[in-house]
Specification:
Helix content is 45%, strand content 9%. With 274 residues, it is an alpha/beta fold. It binds uracil (URA). Uracil (URA) is lined by residues 122-126, 129, 135-136, 138, 140-141, 162, 244.
Length: 274
Amino acid sequence: MQNHQLLEWYLDAGVDEAISDTPTNYFALPALARKEPISEPAAEASATEAPSPAIKATSTATPLHYTPSAAMAMARELADKAASLEELEAMVRGFDGCAIKKTASKTVFSDGNPKGRVMIIGEAPGAQEDVQGIPFCGPSGQLLDRMLASIGLDRGSVFISNTVFWRPPGNRQPSMEETQTCLPFVEKIIALVKPELLILSGGTSTTTLLKKDTSITRLRGKLYDYGNSYLAKEIPTLVTFHPSYLLRTPSQKRLAWHDLLMVKDFLDQAITTG
Ligand code: URA
């Protein structure tokens, strides 16, 4: 294989960043051979990500080679215990059960107002989000902000998160294993924020949360009742196109505008019916 072919093969596999100057042969590491936990170097975590002063770092010490089902069970156990959004955020930041955390530089937990009436769930952090640690701060976030502004909303009135908290390498779609591992955390965020209206932006959050594997074109335009084990009451939910899809397919902005009007109608009606 030629060098450029090898590089192309890496790129196709989503390996687009060198995270170390020297290669590591993980098969040769004695800890792995003996199946001992790989402890996350504390210095690495703090060098890339300064925890918010309000949040105490919680090391959940989940080794990265946990089986997917063990990582999911650990996420569920933690989410069950979280009594506040701050506690949950600290747990997510300390959680090492999702492999994409290893290649990401920041944990991207949320943005906006947890007391907002609307909560939006996107797919996964992209390159810009990975640098800043803020969801939807890149080009699709700029479009999202303009869309929200068109119906009088902004990040002071909505709360935003994603189906996973780390950027998948090469901006690939998060795998089912990654979304299912993060799902208990996402479910608990929704329950702690308890928005009046939940908006699922794009196919990944729709499939993960509504468990519907149909196209957004078919699913959009009506209200669904979203429930999970942490919620006493279901939350009215709308499905719409992801802003990055709208950037690639501007002709769909017309339908997205109808979705925004539905959001506005819902919020206006909720106020008048009190
Ligand atoms: N796309 C998403 O789905 N989420 C982000 O945070 C950024 C881009």
